[in-house]
Automatic annotation (TrEMBL), chain A:
GO terms for cellular component: cytoplasmic side of plasma membrane; cytosol. Keywords: ATP-binding, Cell cycle, Cell division, Nucleotide-binding, Septation. The lineage of its organism: Bacteria, Pseudomonadati, Pseudomonadota, Alphaproteobacteria, Hyphomicrobiales. Residues 5-220 form the CobQ/CobB/MinD/ParA nucleotide binding domain. The keyword Transferase does not apply. Belongs to the ParA family. MinD subfamily. Pfam families: CbiA (PF01656). ATP binds at K11, G12, G13, V14, G15, K16, T17, T18. SUPFAM superfamilies: P-loop containing nucleoside triphosphate hydrolases. It comes from Kaistia hirudinis. ATPase required for the correct placement of the division site. Cell division inhibitors MinC and MinD act in concert to form an inhibitor capable of blocking formation of the polar Z ring septums. Rapidly oscillates between the poles of the cell to destabilize FtsZ filaments that have formed before they mature into polar Z rings. Interacts with MinC and FtsZ. This is Septum site-determining protein MinD. GO terms for molecular function: ATP binding; ATP hydrolysis activity.
TrEMBL record, chain B:
Keywords: Cell cycle, Cell division. Belongs to the MinE family. GO terms for biological process: cell division; regulation of division septum assembly. The lineage of its organism: Bacteria, Pseudomonadati, Pseudomonadota, Alphaproteobacteria, Hyphomicrobiales. The keyword Cell cycle applies. Prevents the cell division inhibition by proteins MinC and MinD at internal division sites while permitting inhibition at polar sites. This ensures cell division at the proper site by restricting the formation of a division septum at the midpoint of the long axis of the cell. This is Cell division topological specificity factor.
Length: 271, 87
């Protein structure tokens, strides 16, 4: 049975696209047929993070409008042959995404994929609403920071009210993915702890992704971190998160970045 | 900043947690309430329109939250002369 997963957050810049790519690749590594779908019309980036920006011919809007077939728009990943990308349009108006058209494309995707991972745009406007509309399960990406937590709370409220599942009176499954976490700073009381965020948002924890240069490295290269640096702490955390989505019980570890003495002394990051 | 502050950095996270808890408690209630106010307004308007000719924008519904009690303010402006609808 296929599952539609929405990766959402409300706030921008918290790691939705990175997480979509990393989770999508991790699910595909686990033997699933996966389509990652970019809903961020006009500001698409999933193609870039996946390293497929030069292979985009047709996009989601072309398919929604009936100008291209789904098979023509889907881009197969060069590294994993069960991973596909449906890019967003960079030029078209986001109003070209009709509710009926998106519903039809989602149904068609369900026929050939085990997982459909939808990368939501930031905000609470139409694009974000359409991205979450048909989801069976939601991953709420949150940074341990006040504005991100507040926006996540807002999005959780919308997942419980505006999705098809919620409108049918069913429970909308939601998971928290805490990204850019710095365990050492949290320990020193300078950053919200995992438990603080969980207590405030009260949804189950899917994973803790540590702040790590491996993430930026991977997007620089156009490769999901779970493929580019599978042994890195964030990749392991994403792979564990993907396994939890599949229903496996995986013990939760608070990932610590191993840093040498010299980088501790000289490598203090700003902000 | 003294030399001691360097060894004991400010613990700002507990402040963040407390601020969020207070804020979200409030926001969750208001988000629910704004829906309630909209529903009430629609239904009050529907009842009124069954009996009198009244434009939709002449019915204002406001909710004010107090410490102990909240008040619902319904402001209906009837055009003169009041035209009663035929039953």
């Amino acid at each position: 049975m296929s599952q539609v997963l929405v990766v959402t957050s409300g706030k921008g810049g918290v790691g939705k696209t990175t997480s979509t790519a990393a989770l999508g690749a991790a699910l595909a590594l686990g033997g699933n047929r996966v389509a990652v779908v970019d809903f961020d019309v006009g500001l698409r980036n999933l193609d870039l993070v996946m390293g497929a920006e030069r292979r985009v011919v047709y996009d989601l809007i072309n398919v929604v409008q009936g100008e291209a077939k789904l098979q023509q728009a889907l881009i197969r990943d060069k590294r994993l042959d069960t991973l596909y990308l449906l890019p967003a349009s960079q030029t078209r108006d986001k109003d070209a995404l009709t509710a009926e058209g998106v519903a039809r494309v989602m149904e068609e995707l369900r026929e050939s994929f085990d997982w459909i991972v939808c990368d939501s745009p930031a905000g609470i406007e139409r694009g974000a609403m359409l991205a979450m509309r048909h989801a069976d399960v939601a991953v709420v990406v949150t940074n341990p920071e006040v504005s991100s937590v507040r926006d996540s709370d807002r999005i959780i409220g919308m997942l419980d009210a505006k999705t098809e599942k919620a409108e049918r009176g069913e429970y909308m499954e939601k998971h928290l993915l805490l990204t850019r976490y710095d365990a050492a700073r949290a320990e020193r009381g300078q950053m919200l702890k995992v438990d603080d965020v969980l207590e405030i948002l009260s949804i189950p924890l899917l994973g803790i992704i540590p702040e790590s240069e491996a993430v930026l490295n991977a997007s620089n290269l156009g490769c999901p971190v779970t493929l580019n640096a599978a042994e890195s702490a964030p990749a392991k955390a994403y792979i564990d998160a993907a396994r939890r989505l599949e229903g496996d019980t995986v013990p939760m570890v608070v990932p610590m970045e191993r840093r040498g003495l010299m980088s501790k002394i000289f490598g203090r990051r700003a902000a | 900043m003294t030399i001691f502050d360097f060894f004991r950095p400010a613990r700002s996270a507990p402040v963040a947690r407390d601020r969020l808890q207070i804020l979200l408690q409030h926001e969750r209630v208001t988000a629910g309430a704004s829906d309630l106010v909209a529903v009430l307004r629609e239904e009050i308007l529907a009842v009124l329109q069954r009996h009198v000719d009244i434009p939709a924008d002449k019915v204002q519904v406001k909710m004010q939250r107090g410490e102990a009690i909240s008040t619902l303010e319904v402001d209906v402006e009837l055009p003169n002369p009041v035209r009663r609808k035929a039953a």
